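Good morning,

Attaching, inline, the backbone tokens for the sequence recovery test we're adding to the shared suite. The designed sequence is right after.
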């Protein structure tokens, strides 16, 4: 058994306090007088894993309100996942935790620090008293006073712009039984003034809720709400959601007011209304993207992705996670079992009979994962890239065109079309090299000073050559097949595809937010061991790199390039 008594004895001596054992070997109780002359009972509980874990501190609130303290009096001292504990200094850990507890307890409720911290914790307090939860898709940043639609099936409630949106969300994302009745009602959303105080969390009465709203809204919103309260009702359920600005963004909380009168009276005169707190879980675009570290500027961007195989599938997923507004996916292939272990899609997608197109399945999977990206799998009769790019006007409607086709001839044709037709849409090309030796992401058409063809043009003639930045020696074949020509593939694995897709997504998003000004090549450098074991050779260019590095170079104009070289129209 650890010597907790000795630790407490040293704490008592160093901090001039008196903690005593409670009858349980790891629990000690003391009475502490704070700087504001308030005395509190403080309990220290050592976990069995101490000093791998910090001791827990409990305060008897006796009606007082303290920061970072839950309903049971347990104090939140630190975010434990982010602290490093010196296990050889058990006393130091105890003293630091005690000092932190006293610091928290000493914050005056009248101080700005207290008010700001309470606002940060308010969401947790409101959750503790709420029995009904509402999922909100509403972006509240521009709302001041508005009526929206609250929809529900059973115990699942959603707040949306329209009942159609609510119905779609409940049936497609919450997977509620479509045989159950779908209900909807109007819900009022009101933004409170900046620096409004928090509402009372104790016993809730309609007159107090009404007074709180009126006291913390201004001008026309106050008049609108007073008019709303003049409605004559007998039996009704009203729902009001409030938006409280804070230094960390909007705080959302709500009330359900259940009215049951014997006669019709004005809403503001109802005295027997039952108040239910509504806890609001935000699933709106801006909130989710901010929490994910994504860029909200992606919402208005549209991307064309050619090829959703191993690399393309991960790029599509990454772009949706980044918050892209529109994603068109073109791929003519079906998804087969041999694709499973290096693709985003799993075995369930490969066992569908008859076999389905990769783009269609990927669209469905991504729409299940992400709410706010408009995905089109371009289900034309002819889904080939050749057919799609033959209609040149189509290419003008995108903010970025991405090719994960792994077909250099097609990529060069797209490059030619963009240049010859003066279509200023950035073009990103990405592909893996075999046996994990590396992967490349090329951004072209950012400027017209150089182009993709420059990288495939001989340095001393206009001859077409293999990609000049390749990590493998030219003239080698890497196609393998296990069961005939129809199953031929280039040997690389899922991790290679993920690494290339991550590199590609970073470059694509940088282009979309305007952070890329030059045509660029980004490459990740892998090891050559597997290449050697397969009897293949690396290039001289690879030998100038360091495995594990990310290499960045700008595409220089090749004067021999037949697309953008000297004497050609740029």
């Amino acid at each position: 058994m650890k010597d907790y008594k000795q630790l407490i004895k040293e704490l008592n001596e160093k901090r001039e306090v008196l903690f005593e054992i409670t009858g349980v070997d790891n629990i000690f109780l003391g009475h502490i007088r704070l700087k504001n002359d308030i005395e509190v009972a403080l309990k220290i509980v050592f976990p069995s894993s101490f000093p791998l874990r910090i001791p827990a501190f409990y305060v008897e609130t006796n009606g007082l309100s303290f920061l970072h303290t839950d309903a049971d009096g347990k104090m939140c001292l630190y975010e434990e996942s982010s602290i490093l504990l010196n296990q050889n200094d058990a006393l130091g850990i105890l003293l630091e935790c005690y000092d932190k507890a006293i610091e928290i307890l000493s914050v005056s409720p009248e101080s700005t620090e207290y008010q700001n911290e309470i606002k940060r914790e308010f969401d947790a307090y409101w959750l503790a008293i709420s029995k009904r939860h509402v999922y909100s898709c509403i972006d509240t940043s521009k709302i001041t006073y508005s009526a929206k639609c609250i929809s529900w099936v059973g115990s699942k409630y959603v707040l949306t712009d329209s009942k159609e949106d609510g119905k779609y969300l409940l049936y497609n994302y919450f997977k509620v039984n479509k045989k159950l009745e779908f209900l909807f009602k109007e819900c009022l959303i009101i933004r409170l003034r900046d620096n409004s105080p928090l509402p009372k969390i104790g016993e809730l009465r309609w007159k107090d809720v009404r007074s709180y709203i009126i006291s913390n809204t201004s001008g026309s919103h106050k008049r609108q709400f007073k008019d709303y309260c003049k409605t004559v009702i007998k039996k009704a359920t009203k729902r009001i959601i409030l938006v409280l600005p804070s230094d960390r963004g909007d705080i959302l909380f709500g009330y359900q007011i259940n009215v049951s009168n014997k006669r019709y009276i004005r809403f503001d005169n109802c005295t027997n209304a039952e108040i239910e707190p509504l806890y609001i879980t935000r699933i709106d675009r801006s909130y989710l993207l901010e929490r994910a570290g994504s860029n909200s500027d992606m919402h208005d961007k549209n991307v064309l992705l050619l090829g959703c195989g191993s690399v393309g599938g991960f790029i599509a997923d990454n772009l949706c996670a980044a918050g892209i507004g529109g994603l068109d996916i073109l791929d003519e292939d079906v998804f087969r079992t041999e694709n499973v272990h290096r693709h985003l899609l799993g075995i369930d997608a490969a066992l569908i009979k008859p076999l389905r197109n990769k783009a269609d399945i990927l669209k469905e999977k991504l729409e299940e994962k992400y709410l706010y990206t408009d995905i089109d799998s371009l289900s034309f009769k002819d889904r080939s890239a050749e057919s799609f790019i033959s209609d040149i006007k189509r290419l003008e409607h995108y903010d970025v065109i991405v090719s994960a086709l792994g077909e250099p001839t097609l990529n060069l044709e797209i490059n030619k079309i963009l240049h010859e037709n003066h279509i200023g849409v950035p073009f990103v090309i990405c592909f893996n090299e075999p046996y994990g030796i590396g992967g490349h992401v090329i951004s072209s058409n950012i400027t017209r000073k150089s182009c993709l063809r420059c990288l495939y043009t001989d340095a001393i003639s206009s001859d077409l050559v293999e990609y000049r930045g390749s990590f493998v020696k030219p003239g080698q074949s890497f196609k393998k097949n296990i069961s005939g020509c129809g199953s031929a593939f280039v040997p690389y694995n899922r991790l290679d595809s993920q690494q290339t897709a991550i590199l590609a997504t970073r470059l694509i998003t940088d282009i979309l937010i305007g952070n890329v000004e030059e045509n660029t090549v980004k490459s990740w450098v892998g090891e050559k061991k597997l290449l050697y074991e397969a009897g293949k050779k690396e290039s001289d260019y690879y030998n100038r790199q360091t495995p594990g590095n990310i290499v960045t170079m700008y595409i220089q104009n090749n004067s021999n390039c037949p697309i953008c070289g000297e004497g050609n129209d740029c």
